[in-house]
Design brief:
single chain, mainly alpha, 6 helices, about 85% helix
């Protein structure tokens, strides 16, 4: 069965372009699905690592804070700041030394995530360069606010698919001597 977008496209597109656009849509949808699965895996990993780190530091409610960190991981840029701030505030009620160690834990987790995990997951799931992802998120957020942050990577994936297809079409055309 076709989903709503496919039905809309087949209804509105000229039949000469229908197959081409549907193929492009399905490629993009597949990559976005893989990207979303990657984001969920990242969230789970960050949540578990934060939970274990907080638990080892003896922070109260470490499981709740780990779940919070995993959930907020899905919100670009500000999510990790919110979860880190909550954990640091809670840890500061135990001791300032514990709060300092929690701060260090979140900095280390974010550095590993931003420099190792996110680039690897993004490249594996979408074949997008981490630089393209960062630029698309920054532009999306600047131009369209929170909605732009959410839609930035899907739009970048679609743009990449369109560009790759255009490039392949030009190469085939040159090969035919047109």
């Amino acid at each position: 069965g076709r989903d709503g977008v496919e039905k809309f496209l087949t209804t509105t597109l000229p039949s000469a372009y229908e197959e081409y656009i549907l193929d492009l849509y399905n490629l993009t949808r597949h990559k976005i699905g893989r990207w979303l699965k990657g984001q969920i895996v990242l969230s789970l990993v960050v949540g578990v690592v934060v939970f274990i780190g907080l638990w080892l530091l003896g922070v109260e409610y470490s499981l709740l804070l780990g779940v919070l960190a995993g959930f907020f991981e899905l919100i670009p840029f500000v999510g990790p700041i919110f979860s880190g701030a909550a954990a640091i505030l809670l840890a500061s009620s135990q001791s300032l030394t514990t709060a300092f160690y929690v701060f260090i834990l979140f900095v280390v987790v974010q550095q590993i995530e931003n420099h190792v995990m996110v680039p690897a997951v993004t490249r594996f799931t979408t074949a997008l360069s981490p630089v393209v992802v960062l630029i698309s998120i920054l532009l999306g957020g600047k131009l369209f606010g929170f909605v732009g942050l959410i839609l930035a990577v899907p739009v970048a994936v679609f743009a990449q698919e369109l560009t790759e297809d255009w490039s392949q079409w030009k190469t085939r055309r040159r090969g035919l001597g047109l």
